[in-house]
Amino acid sequence: MERYTVGQGISRRHLLQGLGALGVAVGTFPVILGTAGSAHGQGNLGELQPEEKVDATLRRLFGNRVIKDGSNVIKLDIPLIAENGALVPITVEAQSPMTPTDYVKHVYIISDKNRRPMNAKVSLTPDMGAAVIGTTLRLGETTDVRAVVELSDGTLLVAKREVKVTVGGCGG
Amino acid sequence: MAEIGRVRIRIPPQIKRGDVVRVRSLVIHPMEIVQRKDGKPIDKNYQFIHKVIVTYNGREILQADTSQSISENPFFTFALKATEPGTVRITFLDTHGGKYEGTAEISFS
């Protein structure tokens, strides 16, 4: 992927191929490179978001607030088919004057079928000049990905797209 | 894996005052995901970036709460209105107390 070859480091694909050649199961990848058996002892599983269905996530984040269809003002750039669920690029661009009285305050990226559906909450300011943010996601399986946009006046808008995932990116 | 915490930032070269530009950044980081045993998550001290802070000449212009659903070696891009020359600083914080920073200069052509 062009964006990733910023010039240094081993691409994840090459690393996985290398590990495969060594006979190491891909599923154990995080254990090898992560800090397994950390010196801290106690884990931080309890601090993560709960594993829950997306409806519970939306209720937890937005309560009973109405989320209006924002597909006419939100451009959600994400592939229809992701060959590698571990690297799914997403860009959210919301039309907004981005003035101190009228701007996009938050963008929530939510992937319905991930065990912990909320992937990121981005907080924006008018200094950005435009409400554009992007990153790459890990998707476990074919799923709807939603961008929920909260405006400075509290309005909630959503755009979503189904992304077909051929190889899941969430390991176990 | 290349050294954790190395930050790369790219800003377009020819900027005029007032342009809204796209800033691209990359940080080397494992973004550990939850492992499971017999279908249950294992309680470990997972290391992943959970916060991103962007400042422009010391003013915070963007903040993100991130999770393990962001890819390894996370890539972030965002818009920035180049109103004055100065420094864009991107700080990544992880769950192990790691703080990784990179800066890029904005100057007008």
Secondary structure layout:
The complex is a heterodimer of chains A (172) and B (109).
Chain A (H helix, E strand, L loop, with lengths): L11 H10 L7 H5 L20 H9 L4 E3 L4 E4 L3 E2 L5 E7 L9 E8 L6 E7 L6 E7 L5 E9 L4 E10 L7
Parallel strand pairs in A: 1-9, 3-9
Antiparallel strand pairs in A: 2-4, 4-7, 5-6, 5-8, 8-9
Chain B lengths: L6 E4 L9 E8 L8 E2 L2 E2 L7 E8 L2 E8 L8 E7 L4 E9 L4 E8 L3
Antiparallel strand pairs in B: 1-2, 2-7, 3-4, 5-6, 5-8, 8-9
In short:
Chain A has 172 residues and is an alpha+beta fold. Chain A has three helices and nine strands.
Description:
The complex is a heterodimer of chains A (172) and B (109). Chain A has 172 residues and is of the alpha+beta class. Chain A folds into two domains: 2-45, no CATH class; 49-165, Immunoglobulin-like (Sandwich), CATH 2.60.40. Chain A has three helices and nine strands, in the order αααβββββββββ. Chain A has helices at residues 12-21, 29-33, 54-62, and strands spanning 67-69, 74-77, 81-82, 88-94, 104-111, 118-124, 131-137, 143-151, 156-165. In chain A, strands 1, 3, 5, 6, 8 and 9 form a six-stranded mixed beta sheet that branches. A three-stranded antiparallel beta sheet of chain A has the order 2-4-7, with no helix packed on it. In chain A, strand 8 and strand 9 (156-165) form a beta hairpin. Chain A is globular. Residues 1-10 and 23-40 of chain A have low confidence and may be disordered. With 109 residues, chain B is an all-beta fold. Chain B has a single domain (7-31, 48-106), classed as Immunoglobulin-like, CATH 2.60.40. In chain B, 0% of the residues lie in helices and 51% in strands. Chain B contains no helices and nine strands. The radius of gyration of chain B is 16 Å and the shape is elongated. At the A-B interface, helix 2, strand 4, strand 6 and strand 7 of A face strand 2, strand 6 and strand 7 of B. Strand 6 of chain A pairs antiparallel with strand 6 of chain B.
